[in-house]
Amino acid sequence: MTKDNLLDAIIEQTKTSKKPTEKQQKIAETAIKMFADKGYANTSTSEIAKAAGVAEGTIFRHYGTKDNLLLSVIIPFLKEALPGMAGKVFKEVLTEDTVHFEDFLRRIIKNRMEFILENQEIFRIIVKELLYSEELRKEFLPYFSTNVMRRVAHAIELFKSRGEIKDLPTDALLKMLMITFGGFLVTNFVLSPSHNTLDIEQETENLVRFVMDGIRN
Amino acid sequence: MTKDNLLDAIIEQTKTSKKPTEKQQKIAETAIKMFADKGYANTSTSEIAKAAGVAEGTIFRHYGTKDNLLLSVIIPFLKEALPGMAGKVFKEVLTEDTVHFEDFLRRIIKNRMEFILENQEIFRIIVKELLYSEELRKEFLPYFSTNVMRRVAHAIELFKSRGEIKDLPTDALLKMLMITFGGFLVTNFVLSPSHNTLDIEQETENLVRFVMDGIRN
Amino acid sequence: MTKDNLLDAIIEQTKTSKKPTEKQQKIAETAIKMFADKGYANTSTSEIAKAAGVAEGTIFRHYGTKDNLLLSVIIPFLKEALPGMAGKVFKEVLTEDTVHFEDFLRRIIKNRMEFILENQEIFRIIVKELLYSEELRKEFLPYFSTNVMRRVAHAIELFKSRGEIKDLPTDALLKMLMITFGGFLVTNFVLSPSHNTLDIEQETENLVRFVMDGIRN
Amino acid sequence: MTKDNLLDAIIEQTKTSKKPTEKQQKIAETAIKMFADKGYANTSTSEIAKAAGVAEGTIFRHYGTKDNLLLSVIIPFLKEALPGMAGKVFKEVLTEDTVHFEDFLRRIIKNRMEFILENQEIFRIIVKELLYSEELRKEFLPYFSTNVMRRVAHAIELFKSRGEIKDLPTDALLKMLMITFGGFLVTNFVLSPSHNTLDIEQETENLVRFVMDGIRN
DNA sequence: TATGAATGAGAATTCATTCAT
DNA sequence: CATGAATGAATTCTCATTCAT
């Protein structure tokens, strides 16, 4: 129970902007780097402690559990990443009917890419652990489904009704969009090592055109 | 050296069809299931032994190392999966100039999906470990690059010259194809739990049309 | 690297007199006794832990490796045993030309016997492992050769030039001295169980006379 | 019980010259080499089996136990080595009163050195294991004491009475002789790697002179 | 709050030994 | 006689977690 309380406390901390200790900060930063690099299972708390210049006990004083440390790092990201998408971009689109789907897509892709570019390491952790841990998957995917997929589905239907995109089942369209964007993100941020030299502008453009018109001449 | 010899012996075994013991068989099967499920790092040899109804020592008598057990399971798959693609489908296409790119795509996708459907669990292991282990990635990706990507690139150029697909840089086209097909496979076989009720015919069709023409109306 | 660091840390500890934990102390003591008794290979870390009243993990927290534990026990002894010989006794002899070889011999033998009497167990460990482990032998013997043998050879030559000992090849004389003193130490401290009732005075005298004049009437 | 019977059977076999199987022979030879090289504790039966070109089970079929294999190799050597000394040389000396102690010593040393030169590996095994295993030591040393030491003591007394050697306590003389010869053998056959290029004639001469007259000029 | 020594439950691996064929 | 697959106890080592200071 202490563990859950601790986690809650940390989540709370994020919201209420109660300052985390300097050490706590350092632990989180270090953990992120190491988890992203070697994966959660292959990173020991003692390594983290050493790299963070902190006693091993300190990690547990703050996070209670290694699992908790992982979640403490992941959750704030998700809390921002998923809704973050909605807040700004979606609302505009739902109202403005001058915006074309292509522009909508372009905006979202660029927006999320920039966000992930700034949080590459956490993104890598999430992708890796999502694939690795059935448990995490079971917790995350439904959440993702309701928070993201539904919104996108909604948008798709809107644009379908406007006649901008093909009149295929929303499910099928949604799936293609998610696969393409997901594959794109994973390829660029997890598989390929060229994290810095990424021309977002160009990559976005290629992706949008591909999604809109395919490759047929 | 014993370790490598053991691995070589196992690879050899695959080729020469020297019968593996009943227990050895059971160990491999069980390991595949468990690795696919929980990931390599989260599966202990003692769990595998218990689940396979075998003494833990027996695993090591046959595979020498846990790593080895993983490789023994992965390598035969890769040996078949990667070249398997080339042999049949590619050659036909390079000669027949009646085949359209769409058909080429359809054939390859269906063919590989069927193969992976039959080897779902190993595919899941490979995807997971590829993302998880830098080491595996460094060994596998270049191999994949030379064996698969180059062939596909070749095909793309062929069809570009025939005017069937857009005259974009081969790299860009290749990337989109790989992302889409990869994302598709991962979504269907790794992320989603509905492994059995997959309508290959229909899924393939959706994918091909999406890749060819995008979603614009 | 952690392993070596740990070993270095322990060596360091010896010099800088940074207090080892009480448990660490106990582990070392217990290990010395057991290694001396049953040999390194026949003593398991779990036995040591049990005998030391410590959790097995504690051994590894402090010493990292079983090998390391052995070295941590041996090295400080060697660091003192080998140079220890030289510092005091040798220097005097090289200057004073009143000292006879017989006295020189007597002093060294007595001095080293007393030292070993106080460190019997470590001496037993070293002798056993030296014979048992090719590896240790290869590391230690050359070191012994340069640090001890050379000095003794030097002294032998000095006394030969003074006409006190036979004009035989230094090598041959050296070999006889080493064999006799070595055999003497091993017999008294390793083979025979009467470790306590040893009359150093008398034994030294016998040995010196034997070496000087042999057994002929 | 089967184990002991097996050991007895093997001892018996040696005497009654019942042919050991070809495989059995190979196992013994290989074991001798490997025990001499790496020590008993560091040599696994599976290694022996592999090196001997034999199935692991075969070792146990013949020797029942790894311990047994060791003994089967050691005992025949001891049975010959220890009494072997007595039979020829001692008897002559006890009768002939023309023989000087120096010649007696020379003969024994040369005789035993030749024997050990031919059985180097077993000698190395015995020395190593004698130091390593309290158990072996407790069995062997008393046996050695009654069979060898007593005879030598007897001879010493004889020569003392003839006035050829110093009138010191037999114990003390005996000890010096054993230490010197033992140290000599261990140095030449166990510690030093130059097993082949040993000038027995010369080494014997050096040793005898040293023992007789010491190093004083 | 922070420390770091101590823990003990497992983890991978080794190996002598057994036994059915 | 010989084989070699199978065993399971023992071994070294790792690591998240606790707790006294």
From TrEMBL, chains A, B, C, D:
The keyword DNA-binding applies. The keyword DNA-binding applies. Keywords: DNA-binding. Pfam families: TetR_N. It comes from the Bacteria. One of its GO terms (molecular function) is DNA binding. GO terms for biological process: regulation of DNA-templated transcription. Residues 44-63 bind DNA. Residues 21-81 form the HTH tetR-type domain. InterPro entries: Homeodomain-like_sf, HTH-type_TetR-like_transc_reg, HTH_TetR, Tet_transcr_reg_TetR-rel_C_sf. PANTHER family: HTH-TYPE TRANSCRIPTIONAL REGULATOR RUTR, REGULATORY PROTEIN. This is TetR/AcrR family transcriptional regulator. It comes from Bacillus timonensis. The lineage of its organism: Bacteria, Bacillati, Bacillota, Bacilli, Bacillales.
